[in-house]
Design a protein that fits this description.
Layout: E1 2-6, H1 10-21, E2 25-30, H2 33-37, E3 45-48, H3 54-60, E4 67-70, H4 75-87, E5 93-98, E6 115-118, H5 119-131, E7 136-142, E8 147-153, E9 174-181, E10 184-186, E11 199-204, H6 209-217, H7 220-227
Parallel strand pairs: 1-2, 1-4, 2-3, 4-5, 5-6
Antiparallel strand pairs: 7-8, 8-11, 9-10, 9-11
Length: 228
Amino acid sequence: MRVIIAGAGSVGRSVARELLDKEHSVLLIDQSKEALGHERIPGAEWLLSDACELAGLAEAGLEEADVVVAATGDDKTNLVLSLLAKTEFGVPRTVSRVNNPKNEWLFDDNWGVDVAVSTPRLMTALVEEAVEVGGLVHLMSFERGQAGLLEFTVHENADLVAERVGGITFPLDTVLVAIIRNSRAFAPSADDVIEAGDELFFLSSPDQEPALLALLQETATAKENAEG
């Protein structure tokens, strides 16, 4: 996979290392000579250029990129790059860094952003995921906000406990993609049984999240009260 990353700061370099370790092709773009001169990453290509200039992006070969990552420390730059990548170069997928959470509402398909990553939001989600049992934690959005990665930790009194995955009717457009149990992650089969303390990971559309939460939080006691 060909990946072009704008912003050779700590975030951009970290992403580049991870991708190179997985044997992807990576080009880093930055307009600062110092950024390009520090910690050169073996295996990565480098280009000294402004990520908002068409000439520089053409030189980078954006039309051949599978993914463009806008990882600069400036939200305006990341938005402009995402828009140019989509509209001028037809890049299939863009991932954009949100530096100021107040600007997060801008990072959508109107600006060519497929996936927006806000470090503060991700940190908050990870904190919630670590301490919250019985609540639905939103970890990340995909497909321009049309789908989300959600986590739910099963309470010991939940009605789901001891239920077979195949016997549970999840809401439309909702898929249970992984379970973490005793620090081991696995893709669930229809015959796997839900246990208390399981961390369930779902892909779901935003409009189905309330129904999913209601299903997950349902308890045997709540059912008995409703039937009574």
